[in-house]
Amino acid sequence: MHDQLAALYPQHLATLRERADKALALGGFDHLLIAAGMPTEKFLDDQDFPFAVNPHFKHWLPLTDAPGSWIIHSPGSKPKLVFLQPRDYWHVVPQAPQGYWVEHFEIVIVRNAAEALAALPAGNRAVIAPGPVEGVEVNNPATVFDYLHWHRSFKTPYELALMREASRIGTRAHRAAGDAFRAGASEFDVHMAYLDAARQIDAELPYASIVGLNEHGAVLHYSRFDRTPPPSSRSLLIDAGASAAGYASDITRTYAAADAGEFQALIDSVDAAQQGFVSMVRAGQSYPDLHIHAHHVLAGVLREHGVIRMNAESAVESGVSSAFFPHGLGHSIGLQVHDVAGFQQGERGGTIARPAGHPYLRMTRTLEPGMVVTIEPGLYFIDMLLAELRDKPVSKDIDWNKVEAFKPYGGIRIEDDVVCTDDAPENLTRDAFAQAS
């Protein structure tokens, strides 16, 4: 892996420098300064939340634990890393930079924030930072942001290599979580099995894991982690990712107990539908259109399994499909789980609105080669949404006995990370599962 990244990194950096040059020219700036950021203090406490590096910072180099450091890009000059290595016996001091990327940077090691500020160039500066920095005017200029965010959607070969690694880590951990479920583990212990297999702590994961047994699978962002196993473990919905040098994977799987025949059949139908949606991740595909298509297909799944009696078109038009599939089909992913520019109209900004009636869709762009998106259809049996359906005329076209039979299983979500290419899509998640088998 190290040799592969070493070979791919120079072109990645050259691409970022070219993008930065164009962004600075658009905004009329001389320098791009990117702050790694600092840990956020807990309210009324002398402790910090776990450090989360500025995604713009980790885009340039694989450093995710360098608080107080800066990247400086000046067109025509070698990029500079101002690396804060404080004198501190309370905490672990970051090691001096090393690895395949260091030869491509001028590196200045400083001991405190004042020395870091003194190393920053003067002039007309675009300063990207997650919050105020004493002594520096943080402007986060929209012109620069719009250009960089738009082009960040298109992953370099170096970035894709890291995302493949994040998928390999995540799928290894998902296998361990599935084994723990089948052994009768609690939600907490399923989560611990996941962490152990990933070899990452919670703070290192790209997002907080969702681990829901039985009815808890109907809570879209379930986060309780019951410590005691239920009397009967009927189903598990686990939505959990992993990190590789700051790049994310985002994977969801749903498992059923051996005796859950009809629910397992429903999982199989959603899985088949999901793979159909993945096959449509092609250049020129409108993501909102794919989302609407998913609603029609999933409505057909509900009809096939006897949950609804209406046809797919009626289920979508009446909002019935949205009661069972209430979130978006997916989102852009990369340096962040819900990556930037999912709604952006172009490199100069602008917004592409969500389709009417679909307020939770997180991606409205047309797919192009180099984009990586999640495809995560789901079907859920959510009390609040079902109660609203019961009060509508369409209630007569729903088999409520069938709904009640499925409710103890919570819901289904199946999610893969998929690369749009010039040809067939690359499914990072399925490929990683296949390599691990």
UniProtKB/TrEMBL annotation:
GO molecular function, one term: proline dipeptidase activity
Keywords linked to the UniProt accession: Dipeptidase, Hydrolase, Manganese, Metal-binding, Metalloprotease, Protease
Domain Peptidase M24: 162-422
Enzyme Commission code(s) on record: 3.4.13.9
Coiled coil: none
Cofactor names: Mn(2+)
Reaction(s) this enzyme catalyzes, per UniProt: Xaa-L-Pro dipeptide + H2O = an L-alpha-amino acid + L-proline
Amino-acid positions noted as binding Mn(2+) 1 in the UniProt annotation, renumbered to this chain: D250, H331, E376, E415
Residues bound to Mn(2+) 2: D239, D250, E415
InterPro entries named in the record: Creatin/AminoP/Spt16_N, Creatinase/aminopeptidase-like, PepQ_N, Pept_M24, Peptidase_M24B_aminopep-P_CS, X-Pro_dipept-like, X_Pro_dipept
EC top class named in words: hydrolase
Cofactor annotation comment: Binds 2 manganese ions per subunit.
Xaa-Pro dipeptidase N-terminal domain sequence ranges: 8-150
Purpose of the protein: Splits dipeptides with a prolyl residue in the C-terminal position.
Family: Belongs to the peptidase M24B family. Bacterial-type prolidase subfamily.
UniProt name for this protein: Xaa-Pro dipeptidase
Lineage: Bacteria, Pseudomonadati, Pseudomonadota, Gammaproteobacteria, Lysobacterales
